[in-house]
Amino acid sequence: MKSNREMKRTIVFYLVSCCALASKTKDVNSAPPLSFPEDADGNILPSGVGPDEEEPSIASYLPDVGPGDSSSQPGGADPELLSPDASFALAGGTLPEAEAPQQQEQSRPVQPLAQQPASANEDLQDPQTVQLMQEPFSTFKQSAEAQRQTALPPVNAALSFRARLKSEARQKRIMAKLKADKLTVRPGAGTGAPDTVKFGMFGKTFFGTSLKNNKFDLDVIMVLKWTDARAIDMVPAGLDKVTVGGDMAKEMVWMPEVVITNRAIKSVDIISTVVVISRTGEVTKVERTLVACNNIFLLEDYPFDTQKLHVKIASSKYMLQELVMKEDEDKAISGVNDVLFDAFQYELDGWKVFAFDEKDGAMQKSRGVLEIRARRTLDKYAESHLMPTFLLLSISWAVFWFPFQNPFITPRLALSIIVLIAFTNLLIKSNEALPGGAPCNWNDIFNQAILSLMTSTIIINILTEIYKHSMKLDDLAQIINHEAKVVQPVLSIALISMILTGGQYKWISINTAQVLSKVMFMLAFAAYVSHSVMRMHVHKAEKDRKDREAAEQKRLAEEAKGFMMPPSGP
Questions:
Q1: By residue range, what is the domain housing residue 18?
Q2: CB-CB contact of 222 with 313 (8 Å)
Q3: For every one of its 570 residues, what pLDDT tens digit does the chain have, with 9 covering 90 and above?
Q4: Last residue of a domain, one of 375, 404, 431
């Protein structure tokens, strides 16, 4: 009897578990319909169980769930959908004492119904047992028949819910990827041809140059135009175009990532950015920027130079094979302000916008350039350097107008040296605006000429003092002093004129002027000094002759005086 009760309890537990599982299933494409073996009378038999085999576990009767199920439980069943007892039994546990026999009363293996002893079959004829068995099977058969008609295999309800979540998450990932592709992938990525970005730049305000640091400051307006058919969806219905800010546009449309490439480090301030999206697919970006640009200045012609101020732009992301810059045909969006240099020592000499390809090893870029030609005016340089220099040079000539007497020896020498020292300060100040490694320029040639002229003034002054006070050649000293009043100004005017006109009108190259100015001064000064030395010998010989004649005349006069004197005596 214990064996019959144990068998009935096992069968009932199995049927209740199957009904609970069938009532919670829903239609998804994950598992095949359940099927059970039956005997000739239509009774469901445990499959593959013989008289001498061990009792199969409940999990062996449950359907296998397809690969889409994430459950790792035996037979593919989800323990959350089983009853507590079924889950416990499925996990390999045993029933509590109230429902399971004592451990010492081990149950015999369950045999197929057709192979049960007669006593067991008699016990199954009990009306309560039959009713208990028929109700779950009837419900289960109806559910199985409905599943067969719909041709949809039953799946766990929890698995169906998780599948929907996975589907929604996957859809969100797909939409996010599509949006990311729209923002990061250029419009012509699949065509094999580079995208073309038209540009224009306008110089609004100029804030000066730093020749020493090779920089200039500019308020520039940059306009970029490109075509992206994907941006049409961003235009609201009924509008031809929509205007958005720069930050919002980055989340809506693809950007070519064009920036000013010759900017100084941490010297860019974006004032405003506006993006206009047209229904035709054309996207226009207008950006105003305050920027300090690195620019190599050509200083050989300083202060008669014309500088080219370059603002260079390029994509910070795309190479030459992916993006090409092209100047816009609309001339109204490019140019410079007419009064750009009114507050500075420059005047506008022209401008142009152009694009070029630059290849530096692996770095190959298409760049756009705004070139502004600024010609330096001489107003500031003339007032701060030329005029003080001319005054000091004129003062240095004044030493030849001092009285040529002994009390003025020191003032004459001191004045010429003081003027030279004063000009040295001007020379240093004029070079402060230039970098230390600047090449030789017109300013250097001019300063060297002035130094040479002042030095020659000092040499001539010392020479005259030597002739007068040391060699006692008063006549020659006077002659040279008077000649210097004319020679020095004429030589100075010749040198300065050659340098200034050569730098202003470029009739002579700077290298030629550098050599010519030195040759002119050296030849003129050497010739004059040599002539003065030759005259010194002549005057000295003449002086010696005169001295000898004077001595002879004195001797003769003394002898004549002694001859004419009467002899003294008593």
A1: 2-156
A2: yes
A3: 556 676 767 776 667 666 666 555 544 344 444 454 555 555 555 444 444 444 444 444 444 444 444 434 434 444 444 444 444 343 444 444 444 444 444 444 444 444 444 444 444 455 555 454 555 445 545 555 555 554 444 445 556 767 777 777 777 776 666 555 678 888 988 888 999 999 999 999 999 999 999 999 999 999 999 999 989 989 999 899 999 999 999 988 999 999 999 999 989 999 999 999 999 999 999 999 999 999 999 999 999 999 999 999 999 999 999 999 999 999 899 999 999 999 999 999 999 999 999 999 999 999 999 999 999 999 999 999 999 999 999 999 999 999 888 888 899 989 999 999 999 999 999 999 899 889 999 999 999 999 999 999 999 999 999 998 888 888 899 999 999 999 999 999 999 999 999 999 999 999 999 999 999 999 999 999 999 999 988 888 888 888 888 888 888 888 777 666 555 554
A4: 375
User: Among 375, 392, 420, where does a domain finish?
Assistant: 375
Tokens of 509: 């190259």
Task: Supply the pTM of this predicted model.
Answer: 0.64
Q: Which helix (H) or strand (E) holds 308?
A: strand 306-315
In sequence order, the β-bridge partners of residue 366 are 357
Dist CA 522 CA 528 (whole Å) = 10
Q: How far apart are the C-alpha atoms of 113 and 125, rounded to whole Å?
A: 13
DSSP assignment of 328-370: -S-GGGSEE-TTTTTTTTEEEEEEEEEEEEEEETTEEEEEEEE
- Residues 274 and 289: their CA atoms lie apart, in Å, by 12
Joined tokens for residue 317: 């992301």
**Ramachandran class of 524: left when φ > 0, alpha when ψ lies in -120 to 50, beta otherwise:** alpha
CB 90, CB 74: distance < 8 Å: yes
**287 token code pair:** 């950006």
Instruction: Write out the two tokens for 338.
Output: 């007419």
Residue count of the chain, please give it.
570
| 25/119 same-domain check | yes
Radius of gyration of the chain (CA): 56
* Nearest one of 261, 256, 374 to 312, comparing CA atoms: 261
Q: How many domains does the chain have?
A: 3
Task: Specify whether 196 is located in the same domain as 296.
Answer: yes
Token pair 């300065």 is at which residue? 496
Both tokens of 421, joined, read: 């020292």
Q: Are the beta carbons of 345 and 303 closer than 8 angstroms?
A: no
Tell me: do 192 and 225 sit in the same domain: yes
In a domain, 167, yes or no: no
All residues at 6 or more sequence positions from 549 whose CB lies less than 8 Å from its CB, including other chains:
none
CATH of the domain at 361: 2.70.170.10
Query: Residues 368, 386: one domain?
Result: no
Which of 154, 189, 125, 209 has its CA nearest to residue 25? 154
**Helices 387-397 & 474-505, crossing angle to 10 degrees?**
170
Q: For the CA atoms of 541, 542, 543, 544, what is the dihedral angle to 10 degrees?
A: 50
Same domain as 152, residue 18: yes
Say if 171 falls within a structural domain. Answer: no
| Same-domain pairing of 152 and 43 | yes
